[in-house]
Amino acid sequence: MEKKKKALKIVIIAIAVIIAAGALISCFTVVNAGSTGVVLTFGAVDDTVLSEGLHFKIPFIQKVVEVNNRTQKIETSGTASSKDLQIVTYDVAVNYHVNNTASAELYKTVGADYSNVIIAPAIQESIKAVAAQYTAEQLITERQNVGDKIKEALGDKISAYGITVEIFNIVNFDFSAEFNAAVEAKQTAQQNALKAEQDLARIEVEAKQKIAQSEAEAQSIKLIQDALATSPDYIEYVKWNKWDGKLPTVLGGDSGTILDIGNITGSGQTAE
Q1: 271 CB contacts (<8 Å, ≥6 apart)?
Q2: Are the C-beta atoms of 39 and 45 separated by less than 8 Å?
Q3: pLDDT tens sequence across 48-62
Q4: Which of 17, 25, 57, 171 has its CA 20 to 30 A from that of 2?
Q5: DSSP-based three-state secondary structure for 28
Q6: Do 122 and 154 form a contact (C-beta atoms < 8 A)?
Q7: pTM exceeds cut of 0.85
Q8: How far is C-alpha 14 from the chain's CA centre?
């Protein structure tokens, strides 16, 4: 009987120690790196935000919920209309983070699912608002500027909740097959027009080169003529320049005698 009482006493003490240890452990909480702790007292959110590390809390009365303050990423897709009423299908990715000091208020007003409740709808609304300010062609050619405008609009919408947009990336803009075909046709026409301009410019340059060459040749001839005209050897130059290289076959004298030189060479005759 005494042994049973002693054993029961040991069990009770052990249970008490376990309960006490559990109660002691529950008096403390650890907030992990990159997060802040939101304190709930009987379910109500306190304004106090716990930083990283070990913290005391009232067991069974207070609870600590962690809010991630690291950089997070959300990807979303959807459609919007351009200024010229073209349908734009988009894929975007956004990097953001929750400011440490805003953790408690964000959890109180929105809850833990703030990504789907606030950020995703704000992204879609911002894209629709900005896309409506540009034509479909501008959405392509001014993509960087469009992305910056969307990032700015998105930041204005969610900054009130203590959320900061770090990076906004347009992964893809896509349009209807008809619009893509029209863009391709326009590019082809522009390339053909550019080629025609280049060909015309080349022809004009070649024509100018030929004119310049002709003028240079004419000037050269004129210089030669001017030089020869003032030279005593000009007549000799003209004579020898026109000679075909053949000697005359007939010679005439003062007495009226005509001598056929061809007889001398065996190819003519003498006549009087």
Answers
A1: 258, 260
A2: yes
A3: 899 999 998 888 888
A4: 17
A5: strand
A6: yes
A7: no
A8: 70
Residue with tokens 């053949």: 246
- In the block, tokens 């034509």 appear at 135
Average pLDDT, the chain: 81
What is the C-alpha to C-alpha distance for residues 39 and 19, in angstroms, rounded to an integer? 23
Query: How far lies 238's CA from each of 88, 229, 231, in Å?
Result: 83, 10, 12
Give the tens place of pLDDT for each residue, 163-212.
999 999 999 999 887 776 766 666 666 666 666 677 777 788 877 888 88
Distance CA(123)–CA(118), nearest Å, equals: 9
28/26 Cα distance (integer angstroms): 5
Distance between CA atoms of residues 119 and 121, nearest Å: 6
Pure H helices in the chain: 2-25, 103-109, 114, 120-131, 136-141, 143-158, 177-229, 234-242, 261-265
